[in-house]
Fold:
Amino acid sequence: MVTRHPRPPARVGRPRALGPSESELTPREEVLAAAAELFTENGYAATTTRAVAERAGLRQASMYHYFARKEDILATLLESTVEPSLLLATALLARPAVDPAARLWTLAAADAALLHRGLYNLGALYQLPEVRGERFAEFRRSRAELRSAYGELLHLIAPGEPGRELRCDLLLGLVEGGVAVVRGREGDGAPGTEEVGAAVADAALRLAGCDRAAREAAVRAARGLAPA
Structure:
C-alpha cells in the first residue's frame, strides 16, 4: 500500500520525463504506485524498470535516484504491507491485562484492512520465488514475527488447545487469503475496508475457538484498542 502525502512546494530529487505531475504523490511514491500496479497486473518478472519509470512519468535514470534495483522497489512494497501490523502486534502484546480475544480481533481487523486498503493486491506477491532471496530477508523476518504474534494470542486464548502451529498458519492464511478473495468482488456490492476488516477479525475469533459470547465481548473490548 502506498501512503499519500501532500506534494511539497519545491521538488527535491531528479527531473521528470513528462514535466511536473498533477498527482499529490512524491516521485518516490509514484514509482511505488506504478510498480504496485505493474507487478500485480503484469507480473514481477515481466515488468522492467523502464516500464515502471514510464508509468511513473520519470526517466529511467531518474528513477534510480530513489531505487537502485527492481528488487528494492518490491522489498519496499512488501515491507509496507507488514510493518504497520507488526508495530500494532507488538503494542498489543505489551498489554497483558487486556482480553487476548480483543487483542486478536484488533490485530486481525487492522491487518486485513491494511491489505484491503491499497489499490492493488500486494499480498499476491508474497509467494513470488524471488521473495526467497536475501534482499527480502527483512520482509520474511517481519512476517515471521507477525505470525508469531498471532500464535501468541491464540495460545493466550486457548492455552491447552492442540495444533497451535497449524491454527496459526490457518489464521495467517485467513487474513491474507480472505482479503484476496474479497478484492475480486467489484461493483456496488463490494464491501468497504472497515467491513472487510471486521469480517476477517470475526472469523479469526471463530478459528481461535471463541464462542458467541466471547466474540461479542471481544468486539466490545476492542473498540478502545483499534489504531487511530
